[in-house]
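Design a sequence for this backbone.
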């Protein structure tokens, strides 16, 4: 016999449950997508397959729902919530550990996405079967679907604005699991389900999730320790990236989304080449613009010039600039450049800012973005973006752009060079060896005539750049020589595809 012991007034509680389970279901998918983006890079194929996996699993679950809970739908739904709580709640931790300590991350990723999608797919038809005794068909469908979509909206807003910056991925998954347990408990109470085994299941799952939540920082650190060769001294999730700092003896390393950004042992080579090459083309640089460079290391080099009166640093992530301004190890590394009164920090999307900027022109521009591993960053390497830089540079000024490795990502490097050239710039490609990265490439550019660095304008005290190093940077051997390359355009970002293929071929070999 089907159960019919629903408490009076429980229909509203059941509809709220629709809203909550929809919210949690989408959060689990967003967690999987964010982890994949952090750890594997944000490719269109990956983004598409995660969504496809989840939606296909929901379809399978919706079909299977007709065979679930025919006699006791409330009991079935309560057990379903326990299952989602357990699998979804531990999903982020499981994926972290799989990536760090095994080669099966993708298998775990897609399996967990499928399992959660399958269970979520069973939820809504089962809830509708429970609610149909209280509502007409049209009213039932409209209310359930409306609440389902509202829950998805709430998840999509909360995830980047609150959950990731405040809780992080692992805590977020455990908290959503606890919400699923709470929904299960509400159902058990609403339908007066006094089944000892069912209550024991909820208690065990809740206790496991609470234990996981309490240990989430330890789990995160343990998982991340498998990714990095040195001890982690700081890790932080922001709405834009995962930020990890490691330290061993006197060496400090910064990783963004698991990609090494610099090592304190040799970052001076990179930043001296990036900064002093363009600034030495300008007689007396007074105003300098940095796009990216939230670590303050490029700013440190710019502030060596006594003629510099103002530096504007535009970086997307306020957490990044705040960290490198206030943390004692990191602010010491950049010589407290982000606290210098000559420097102004603006946290904004550079792509938008360059088109809306009302600032006077700059004598030099330093472009120091992460590599174009995804389309969000790839737009900062497009012809459109480089064209927007023209009004920002004063006559006689110079521009430098970091352009990835001309050895390991040769097609990507020359694609960037050709794109800058196509945007109307006079270019001089150059490169140098940075031990932490290998050969690394840049482009020097100006508006009217090819830029010419002047050794006499270099500040004193540089560790790498001198009369011997500077000319050699503009010479390319045969294995790094120019390749014919298409232009990277805003709505056809061939560079992102090149970059993914170039670096994957290195890893596979």
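Sequence:
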């Amino acid at each position: 016999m089907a159960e019919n012991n629903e408490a009076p007034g429980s229909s509203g509680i059941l509809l709220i449950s629709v809203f909550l389970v929809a919210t949690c279901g989408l959060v689990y998918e967003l967690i999987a997508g964010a982890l994949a983006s952090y750890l594997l890079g944000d490719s269109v194929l990956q983004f598409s397959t995660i969504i496809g996996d989840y939606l296909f699993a929901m379809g399978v679950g919706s079909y299977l729902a007709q065979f679930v809970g025919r006699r006791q739908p409330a009991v079935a739904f309560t057990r379903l919530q326990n299952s989602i709580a357990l699998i979804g709640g531990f999903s982020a931790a499981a994926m972290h550990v799989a990536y760090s300590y095994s080669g099966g991350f993708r298998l775990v990723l897609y399996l967990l996405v499928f399992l959660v999608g399958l269970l979520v797919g069973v939820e809504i038809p089962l809830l509708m079967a429970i609610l149909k005794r209280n509502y007409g068909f049209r009213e039932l469908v409209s209310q359930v679907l409306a609440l389902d979509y509202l829950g998805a909206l709430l998840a999509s807003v909360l995830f980047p604005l609150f959950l990731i910056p405040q809780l992080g991925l692992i805590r977020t998954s455990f908290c959503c699991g606890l919400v699923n347990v709470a929904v299960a408990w509400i159902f058990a109470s609403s339908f007066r389900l006094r089944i000892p085994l069912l209550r024991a299941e909820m208690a065990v799952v809740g206790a496991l999730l609470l234990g996981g939540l309490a240990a989430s920082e330890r789990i995160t650190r343990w998982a991340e320790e498998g990714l990095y060769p040195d001890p982690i001294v700081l890790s932080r999730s922001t709405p834009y990236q995962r930020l990890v700092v490691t330290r061993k003896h006197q060496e400090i390393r910064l990783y963004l989304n698991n990609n090494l950004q610099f090592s304190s042992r040799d970052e001076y080579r990179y930043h001296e080449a990036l900064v002093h090459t363009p600034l030495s083309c300008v007689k007396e640089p007074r105003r300098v613009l940095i796009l990216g460079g939230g670590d303050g290391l490029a700013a440190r080099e710019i502030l060596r010039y006594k003629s510099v009166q103002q530096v504007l640093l535009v970086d997307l992530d306020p957490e990044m600039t705040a960290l490198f301004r206030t943390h004692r190890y990191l602010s010491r590394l950049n010589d407290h450049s982000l606290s210098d009164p000559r420097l102004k920090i603006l946290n904004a999307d550079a792509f938008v800012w360059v088109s809306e900027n009302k600032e006077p022109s700059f004598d030099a521009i330093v472009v120091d973005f992460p590599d174009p591993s995804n389309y969000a960053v790839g737009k900062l390497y497009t012809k459109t973006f480089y064209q927007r830089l023209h009004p920002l540079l004063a006559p006689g000024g110079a521009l430098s752009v970091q352009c990835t490795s001309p050895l390991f990502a040769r097609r990507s490097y020359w694609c960037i060079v050709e794109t800058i050239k196509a945007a109307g710039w006079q270019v001089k490609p150059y490169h140098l060896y940075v031990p932490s990265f290998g050969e690394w490439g840049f482009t020097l550019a100006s508006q009217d005539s090819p830029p010419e660095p002047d050794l006499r304008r270099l500040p004193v005290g540089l560790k790498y750049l001198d009369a011997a190093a500077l000319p050699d940077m503009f010479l390319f051997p045969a294995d790094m020589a120019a390749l014919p390359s298409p232009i990277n355009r805003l709505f056809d970002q061939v560079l992102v595809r090149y970059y993914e293929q170039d670096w994957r071929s290195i890893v596979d070999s």
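The longest strand covers residues 393-402.
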